[in-house]
Amino acid sequence: MFSRYCAKPFTFEQVDVVYEHSNETKVTLDISVRSIETEVKYINTVVGVEIEAQQTVDLLQKMGLNGKKLSAEKISVDVPINRSDVLHPCDIAEDVAIAYGINNIPFAYPSTSTTGGQLTINKISDLVRQEVAQAGYSECLNFALCSIAEITELINRKEGLKEAIQIGIL
Questions:
Q1: 93 touches 46 (CB < 8 A)
Q2: Is residue 153 included in any domain, yes or no?
Q3: Do 93 and 51 share a structural domain?
Q4: Rounded to 10 degrees, what is the CA torsion of 124, 127, 133, 136?
């Protein structure tokens, strides 16, 4: 989106990145369009309305997503590079709900009854966080959940793995 400020607006140059450790080459900026297939029944269940496949495609068009009807039960959606927020079928359902009109969706109680509340540890953490901030400290959050490759190989720092804390998979 920053390319609008270039000498030639809306132009950019792709670059080949060669990784020393694997001699692998990746082209960046990847501007290919991703395609996501999803079922109309899933979208209807999430949104809470009954919409046919073609109407779903038409609603997605309002949201800047090109889709096509594969069958009465399935659609395919082309996700452009500027829609990095669309990752899963639930994101497509969200866009359908917005285009349909949130206020047009009929109110319905959930089919199951649940009770919820804040965990005690979270409540205490929020209170402590507020007190510490009022004492003049700043909270610093980072992206702690990264792949091993991201913290070692991709930044050419293989010794970083010794210092990293790893989360095990059960």
A1: yes
A2: yes
A3: yes
A4: -90
Render pLDDT for 59-82 as a digit per residue (tens, 0 to 9): 999 999 999 999 999 999 999 888
Task: Specify the higher pLDDT residue, 62 or 162.
Answer: 62
pLDDT band at 43 (very low <50, low <70, confident <90, very high): very high
Q: Each residue of 88-135: pLDDT tens digit?
A: 999 999 999 999 999 999 998 878 888 888 899 999 999 999 999 999
Sorted by sequence, the CB contacts under 8 Å of residue 52 that are 6+ apart come out as 40, 72
Whose structure tokens read 């003049």? Answer: 136
What is the rounded CA–CA span in Å between residue 49 and residue 104?
A: 9
Q: What phi and psi values does residue 56 have, to the nearest 5 degrees?
A: -60, -45
Classify residue 69: in a domain, yes or no.
yes
Asked if residue 124 belongs to a domain, the reply is: yes
pTM of model > 0.85: no
3-state helix, strand, coil in the chain (%, to 5): 40, 15, 50
Segments forming the whole domain that contains residue 44: 34-103
DSSP character string of 57-107: HHHHHHTT-EEEE-SSSEEEEEE-TT-TT--SHHHHHHHHHHHH-GGGSPP
Domain count for the chain: 2
